[in-house]
Write a structure and sequence with these properties.
The complex is a heterodimer of chains A (113) and B (118). Chain A is mostly beta strands. In chain A, 0% of the residues lie in helices and 51% in strands. By secondary structure, chain B is mostly beta strands. Chain B is 0% helix and 52% strand. Classes of the chains: A mainly beta (113), B mainly beta (118).
Chain lengths: 113, 118
């Protein structure tokens, strides 16, 4: 069975600074990887996804993620964080067409002035 | 993109009552919907997979008699929390797969329903 680890529970960055949120997965085959963002009391919004092809994936809101098979990682990055990026970020993995997603525990991002 | 709605967005009920939460795919037909539960500051935990026209598949540890799921049409799945108790208070989120989206396994999430049981 697949699993996802997000090692950082809470990260604080200054506005304008760069950001990297870590995600490691465990799965025997090539997984389908996702990053979602959740604002307080809200549902999930898809930032980006990786299925195959180019390992550097561009998403919405200026986010990108890189799939590294050798490290079983799919880290999320943003070159310059905005205060509105403060939220909870979830990495998720899916195995096949009909299986639900398995989520990491999330990383809470705080942005300071 | 595909839109999934949930109703109600917030519900407060007394202990012992039943609460129904609706999940609708607004602009696509969803043969499969998923129900998740999220405790405060926790991740999403899958409760069950709902397939249109058939019985839901529940995850281990989820009581099927307590969390009744009905996927009667291609655009609607309902989750009924029966005889709710304070420990059932949580944020319930549904998602739906759009088989025509062209993206493998892409799920679209509803905005969630906050259930508080007094």
């Amino acid at each position: 069975a697949q699993s996802v680890t997000q090692p950082d529970i809470h990260i604080t960055v200054s506005e304008g600074a760069s950001l990297e949120l870590r995600c490691n997965y465990s799965y025997g085959a090539t997984p389908y990887l996702f990053w979602y963002v959740q604002s307080p009391g809200q549902g999930l919004q898809l930032l980006l996804k990786y299925f195959s092809g180019d390992t550097l994936v561009q998403g919405i809101k200026g986010f990108e993620a890189e799939f590294k098979r050798s490290q079983s990682s799919f880290n999320l990055r943003k070159p310059s964080v905005h205060w509105s990026d403060a939220a909870e970020y979830f990495c998720a993995v899916g195995a096949s067409e009909n299986t639900p997603l398995v989520f990491g525990k999330g990383t809470r991002l705080s942005v300071i002035a | 993109g595909a839109v999934v709605s949930q109703h109600p967005s917030w519900v407060i009920c007394k202990s012992g009552t039943s609460v129904k939460i609706e999940c609708r795919s607004l602009d696509f037909q969803a043969t499969t919907m998923f129900w998740y539960r999220q405790f405060p500051k926790q991740s999403l935990m899958l409760m069950a997979t709902s397939n249109e026209g058939s019985k839901a598949t529940y995850e281990q540890g989820v009581e099927k008699d307590k969390f009744l799921i009905n996927h009667a049409s291609l655009t609607l799945s309902t989750l009924t929390v029966t005889s709710a108790h304070p420990e059932d208070s949580s944020f319930y989120i549904c998602s739906a797969r759009d088989p025509t989206s062209g993206s493998f396994n892409e799920q679209f999430f509803g905005p969630g329903t906050r259930l508080t049981v007094l």
